[in-house]
Amino acid sequence: ALSPEEQAFQDRIDAGERIEPRDWMPEGYRKTLIRQIGQHAHSEIVGQLPEGNWITRAPTLERKAILLAKVQDEAGHGLYLYSAAETLGESRDEMTQKLLDGRMKYSSIFNYPTLTWADIGAIGWLVDGAAIMNQVPLQRTSYGPYARAMVRICKEESFHQRQGYHIMMKMARGTDAQREMAQDALNRFWYPSLMMFGPSDKESVHSAQNMAWKIKINTNDELRQKFVDQTVPQAEFLGLTVPDETLCWNEEKGGYDFAEPDWNEFFEVLKGNGPCNAERIGARQKAWDDGAWFRDGLSAYADKQQARRMA
Ligand code: 3HC
Questions:
Q1: What ipTM goes with this model?
Q2: Is 13 helix (H, G, I), strand (E, B) or coil?
Q3: Helices H, strands E: what count in the chain?
Q4: Could you say which residues form the signal peptide (predicted)?
Q5: pTM tops 0.95
């Protein structure tokens, strides 16, 4: 049974009220939000790595400028989200340390390699497309700082998706070699994109509680279905084939029936056995180590300023 405070809190949630940092909240609400917002922030920062790989290899100056802008946006998304998580009492340094020692996750999708330029199109179209599907409802999540961060992030995400789809249009209508690269990218990113929505609802450990607290507005399977229903016509418009022979329109459910991702692969990637896990964490560890002198300099300067003020 809920304590009087927990009941009062739940009544506020059920009334659609926003919870702010200084409000009373159950410890479980605080912990699950630090977990989700922190991992969301880690996803934005680690997500810069696969795309960053192509900034120096972009086919034109225009594409290079667009990709630079997108990767820079992702860094900003990470900072908004770390700031939202910090309002719950966990510092960015603590969350970073947990990422580096495997106690916090980042989205599985970023453990797959970007082998060709078409992958940059597929990431914008599918990965940012899936991120938008998941982030739009999060604008209405019950925790104020998280919901407000989402409003700004969703505006920038739509640019990310448009530029990716434009790359796919260019290549799907290009030479045979370009069209084959676009199809190959769709083949490799389709199922990992479906995994971004999380395990199936029956496997999801946090969904029930997070739906009750209106942290999660739609279930994992609902958003995955919406993503498939929106994306299949876009693939058809490109003249590309979704790599799922079982895919077919189901009139009575008003959506596509489709094959689920390989959940063994999903849980393997979460355990750290994906194609690029070690490389991604290695890059973040190096960034942390290489930045130590700069952080020390900043704190030394801040201490000196503080000492001057106290003198
Ligand atoms: N990758 C890594 N871990 C995942 C995952 C994925 N695709 N899907 C689920 N998990 C983890 C969960 O974190 C949880 O593990 P934990 O207890 O150690 O945190 C476990 O698998 C069970 O999954 P649940 O469904 O029970 O967990 P959630 O209720 O948290 O649902 C979620 C998972 C839908 C990803 C939810 O956390 C969420 O909506 N997060 C916010 C959005 C987000 O993080 N998106 C990631 C991509 S961000 C991005 O793509 C940036 C864009 O700019 C490209």
A1: 0.98
A2: helix
A3: 14, 2
A4: none
A5: yes
